[in-house]
Design goal:
Elements: H1 2-14, E1 32-37, E2 40-45, H2 46-50, E3 54-59, H3 66-77, H4 79-84, E4 87-93, H5 97-105, E5 115-118, H6 123-127, E6 132-133, E7 151-152, E8 155-159, E9 165-170, H7 174-192
Parallel strand pairs: 3-4, 4-5
Antiparallel strand pairs: 1-2, 1-5, 3-8, 6-7, 8-9
Length: 197
């Protein structure tokens, strides 16, 4: 029972909607971070990714937790639609790069399609004005491995090629968050297309 109550408290704490997150029209803080794609570590640069088009920067509490598993899975199954809308997707959490190497290659979640970046000290999340909560002693992930890091709140930013935030998505369940992000980047992609005569 204690474990259940602790899980409920943690869930409510990490799904609390963003209040102070950066808003539409603000400049997105640039960042470089160690990231993983398909189990291979690399350095992700927001500045470099923006040269290709919009970037979906999605912050999530932790790899291998219920809502985050759903969100990563939804991003991976919709990956080709994001690419078609000329958008790069990068997940950001306080997980270590070792956890993210596993998560990024897991066929049930990121499935080798979605890159995830490590923000172990929470500096990137804080730069985006997100709340970062301390680790909860004894909290385990869906694999029954203890989670020994803090949690950033679940918020997604759509950053356009000019480096500005075009949308901030918070307070949504994980699947709706992905759906709204896709709808937003598709709308921007459609707006860029020349009108057919």
């Amino acid at each position: 029972m204690k474990r259940f109550l602790l899980g409920c408290l943690l869930l409510s704490a990490i799904t609390f909607p963003a209040i102070a997150a950066l808003h539409e029209g603000e400049v997105a803080p640039d960042f470089k971070a160690q990231a993983s794609l398909a189990g291979k570590a690399f350095i992700f640069s927001l500045k470099d990714a923006l040269k290709k088009g919009a970037v979906v920067v999605y912050f999530y509490p932790s790899a291998y937790t219920g809502g985050c598993n759903i969100q990563a899975h939804e991003f991976s199954v919709n990956y080709d639609k994001f690419v078609a809308a000329e958008a790069t997707v990068i997940g950001v959490s306080l997980d270590s790069i070792d956890r993210l190497n596993d998560f990024s290659s897991d066929p049930n979640y990121c499935a080798g399609k979605v890159a995830v970046a490590s923000d172990v000290d929470g500096k990137i999340a804080k730069a985006y004005d997100l709340t970062v909560r301390e680790a909860v002693a004894g909290k385990k992930d869906t694999r029954e491995i203890e989670i020994n890091h803090g949690f950033a709140e679940r918020t997604t930013f759509i950053v356009t090629a000019d480096g500005k935030i075009a949308a901030t998505l918070s307070g949504l369940d994980p699947a709706a968050n992905v759906s709204k992000a896709l709808e937003t980047v598709q709308r921007f992609a459609d707006a860029k297309k020349p009108e057919s005569r």
